[in-house]
Amino acid sequence: MSDSDSKRTQENRSARRFAVEAAVEMNEPGRERPAVYTARDVSANGVFVLTDRPLPKDSSIRFTMTLKGVGVPNDGLDILCCGTVVRIESEEGQTGMAATISSYRFVQDASEL
């Protein structure tokens, strides 16, 4: 991504992003079990997921993100999110996709997924 693309992306953000490493689990076409990837950064409105199999731009996306940290249960806090893939990036040998988060809810147990 060029400097101007990076600045434009930052200008379009409406919420502060936090650099995190959170597990992201999502079902993908052609896979029997959910794949687990890593979120590189998260905001209230979006997420960037490192993946070698990004979904096409404008694809609907549904995933569960597990956040860990102070004040969170030992096994983490699961958040079920829905959104749309807005861009694909490949940089320094890493590929990923940026997605909006249009809705989310906290999940208390796996039966709610």
Spans where pLDDT lies below 50 across 5 or more residues? 1-11
Secondary structure tally: strands: 7
Instruction: Please report the number of helical segments.
Output: 1
Number of individual domains: 1
CATH architecture: Beta Barrel
CATH class: Mainly Beta
Determine the N-to-C terminus distance. 35 Å
- Report the mean per-residue pLDDT as an integer: 83
Secondary structure: helix percent? under 10%
Spatial strand arrangement across the major sheet:
1-2-3-6-5-4
Order of helices and strands: HEEEEEEE
Biggest sheet layout: 6 strands, antiparallel, barrel
Q: What amount of the residues lies in strands?
A: over 45%
Walk me through what this model shows.
This protein has 113 residues and is mainly beta. The chain is built from one helix and seven strands; from the N terminus they run H-E-E-E-E-E-E-E. A six-stranded antiparallel β-barrel has the order 1-2-3-6-5-4. A hairpin with an 8-residue loop joins strand 1 and strand 2 (35-42). The longest helix is centred in the N-terminal third of the chain and has 10 residues, at 3-12.
SSE blueprint:
Blueprint: H1 3-12, E1 18-26, E2 35-42, E3 46-50, E4 60-67, E5 77-91, E6 94-100, E7 103-107
Antiparallel strand pairs: 1-2, 1-4, 2-3, 3-6, 4-5, 5-6, 5-7
Structural features:
about 110 residues, mainly beta, Thrombin, subunit H, 1 helix, 7 strands, about 10% helix
Summarize the structure.
The protein is mostly beta strands and 113 residues long. Helices cover 9% and strands 50% of the residues.
